[in-house]
Amino acid sequence: MAETSMSRQLYFRLSLMQFLQYLIWGSWYVTLGTYLLKTLHFTGPQVGLVYGATAIAATITPFFMGVLADRLFSTEKLLSILHIVGGVVMWAASYLTSFEWFYPTLILYTMLYMPTFTLTSSLSLHHVKDATRDFPRVRVWGSLSWIIIGLVIGYMDIEQEVLPMRISAVFSFIQGLYCLTLPHTPPQPQPNKFALRDVFGKEVLELLQRREILILIIALALIRIPSSFYYSFVNPFLNEIGVSNAAGKMTIGQVTEVLMMLLLPWFLQKIRLRYIIAIGLTIWGGRYLLFAWGGDSHWHWMLYLGIVVHGIAFNFATLSSQIFIDRQVPNHMRSTAQGFITFVTMGFGAFLGSYVAGHIVEGYTLTDGTHDWSSIWQWPGWFGLAVAAGFLFFIQRTGTKKGKVQKTPN
Description:
Order of helices and strands: HHHHHHHHHHHHHHHHHH
Helix content: over 70%
Low-confidence stretches: 400-408
CATH topology of the largest domain: Growth Hormone, Chain: A
Largest sheet: none
CATH superfamily of the largest domain: MFS general substrate transporter like domains
Structural class: mainly alpha
Mean pLDDT: 83
Distance between the termini: 26 Å
CATH architecture of the largest domain: Up-down Bundle
């Protein structure tokens, strides 16, 4: 009888990979702005540019590296190289104090690091027995590590110091070495020989010819516009309206993210994937209307509800989309497909979303420096609901094509 679940040893190995993956990012990403503003005295626009480095990197390298993993290099070795070199670059960046040197160095680091999201996901999906059941159980350790490292750095009270960057660099070295022990994940047999033009055109066209994938990719790119409002402006919004310990309260979203990740396999057994994704997109937009209506002190429960549902929105929209794509594509395109999702969401979508969000917030800035938040949140709220409705309408018009890759209807 074929094995129906992955072994405990494989579960531990993949979970530790995800744990270290997000420990590296969580070590520096949240506190870097405080370090740059308070210690290095960078300006606000300079800090904004630094945080935009991840979007620039996600636009350029994840898809390219995904193609390399599918075509030329084993995934675990490519991961090892990226993490070790990335650790060197991060360690060097920690000694730079001028924006002119720090900014391009961090762009270089993010170009090395961002593809590792794609590669860790594709490696996990390659080895788990049942992506629907097993992948969320593995991926949840990434969210847990994010919470843990955030609590540790907060307890150490080192937000204004350079130490978080060096902690990240050390764990990058550790992850790079650990990746060499991961299950061997060689390039998959290809129907054609590799050509450089495949990286820039053929693979993308093959993906986009699949109607279900095209609809999902468009929806994921568009939903990143409202999601940019959450990551950039919910914390300033809560502080401006007088909510105490806003940063601490926002961690509720990560807690529900962990809980929903553990529950996701149950939902995937009960509800078709396309409906789960549609629910996630709906919640992703709808929560902003809770922010719009919850600004009054008597309705602050709406604000907390809007934060709580972050975990549902993330898992139902983003994580479920990774599983959806994995079911749709052949094995030899697995890393390419996951890399393209990273490109349209964390790259193009995030870049466009940051631009739109910044201009809308600026347009509703009042003369005293405060903001008309009720009007601001209407934009991502209704836009997000429109994206969800459009996704559901168009995906319903595509039938499940039998005899291809997926065995379970999406």
